[in-house]
Write a structure and sequence with these properties.
- The structure holds 2 protein chains of 2 kinds.
- Chain A is mainly α.
- Chain A has 3 helices and no strands.
- Chain A has helices spanning 2-15, 20-38, 47-67.
- In chain A, helix 2 (20-38) runs antiparallel to helix 3 (47-67).
- Chain A starts with a helix and ends in a 5-residue tail after the last helix.
- By secondary structure, chain B is mainly alpha-helical.
- In chain B, 81% of the residues lie in helices and 2% in strands.
- Chain B has 8 helices and 2 strands, in the order H-H-H-H-E-E-H-H-H-H.
- Chain B has a two-stranded antiparallel ribbon.
- In chain B, strand 1 and strand 2 form a beta hairpin.
- The chains are: A mainly alpha, B mainly alpha.
- The A-B interface holds A 14-17, 19, 22-23, 26-27, 30-31, 33-34, 36-38, 42-44, 46-48, 51-52, 54-56, 58-59, 62-63, 66-67 and B 69, 72-74, 76-78, 80-81, 83-84, 87-88, 93-94, 138-139, 142, 196, 199-200, 203-204, 207-212, 217, 221, 224-225, 228, 232, 236, 239, 243.
């Protein structure tokens, strides 16, 4: 069981890293893109700016954590 | 056009990881003996080859749109991690990656570890080289498999990684020192941009979006990600300077 947990933790750290909100933001943005496409609207334009917003929020969080002395 | 982009991305990403793996193998070899370090390196390469050989063809059985959705989402989450670290480094909020400093730390750790011989090999040296190459190599395997399968050209992605391996190995043997002069921070920035670009492109396509201009839109996405990244660095630099006491 410990090995399964360690294996899961490894892949979580590998793909998601130390900011799960960024990964959640990515998934939500892809979900909106899929919804737009399913509704028959142009969907290509949504993901690039949504990714930029997710990145910027993640950068702000990282800087705030550093300012508060939270080492990650 | 996309094949060239695919090759360049897989080559750069693999090269950067291999430079880091080389530092660990060098530290293991210098302090614990080359035999155990090279066996550790060889064992890790075998494991990585098996992973790519098994998972790569298996992924090609999945329908391409579903594959691009999953691979794109994974690459986007993974690429944003790289890009975030690269932007934090470039803006001065995080120290730059320094291969010399890492080498010195690995040397000190390896010299301080107890000597334990098994099967004629120093176990610490073997494990250090094996774990280092395996962990760095897993990122290479992940990139090769995802890029190769989503683009339908696993062979080209594997070829790019193999070319990077040969280049880093040859330079490593010639120099016999950490490749500190490789502009690693710049390369990591470029790789973060490419992973994010491919992630956006494939996940949107997998979600059902049609890019205007088809595959040529990849260049537009690349330009957008580059612009956002440089703007982020500029804004964060300004913020850091404002926070620094005069």
């Amino acid at each position: 069981m410990r090995h399964v947990a360690a294996f899961g933790r490894f892949w979580w750290d590998f793909v998601v890293g130390d900011d799960w909100r960024a990964a959640a933001g990515v998934l939500a943005s892809i979900g909106v893109t899929a919804a737009l496409a399913a509704a028959g609207w142009a969907a290509w334009w949504f993901l690039p700016p949504a990714t930029a917003v997710v990145l910027w929020l993640s950068l702000r969080r990282a800087i705030r954590q550093r300012a508060l002395g939270v080492s990650r | 056009m996309n094949d060239g982009f695919l090759f360049a991305s897989a080559f750069l990403a693999s090269g950067v990881e291999m430079v880091e793996a080389l530092t660990i193998v060098l530290a293991a070899g210098v302090t614990r003996g080359w035999r155990s370090a090279l066996f550790g390196l060889g064992a890790a390469v075998v494991v990585l080859t098996v992973i790519v050989a098994v998972l790569g063809p298996a992924l090609t059985l999945i329908p391409i749109s579903a594959l691009r959705l999953v691979v794109g989402a994974l690459l986007l989450a993974f690429g944003l991690q790289w890009l975030r670290k690269a932007i934090l480094r470039a803006s001065g909020f995080v120290g730059l990656h320094d291969e010399d400093a890492i080498f010195a730390r690995e040397l000190a750790d390896a010299r301080g570890a107890a000597h334990e011989e098994r099967a004629g090999m120093d176990w610490y040296g073997f494990t250090l080289a094996f774990k280092g190459v395996l962990l760095e190599g897993l990122e290479v395997a992940f990139i090769v498999i995802t890029f190769g399968s989503a683009q339908g050209n696993l062979r080209l992605a594997a070829l790019a990684a193999a070319a990077a391996l040969v280049l880093v190995a040859v330079v490593g043997v010639l120099v016999r020192a950490p490749l500190a002069r490789v502009p690693e921070n710049t390369l990591k920035f470029a790789v973060g941009v490419m992973l994010t670009t491919f992630g956006i492109f494939w996940s949107a396509e997998g979600a059902g979006a049609d890019w205007p201009g088809g595959d040529a839109a990849l260049l537009g996405v690349l330009a957008f990600v580059v612009l956002v990244s440089f703007a982020s660095v500029a804004l964060l630099r300004r913020r850091r300077l404002a926070l620094t006491p005069a």
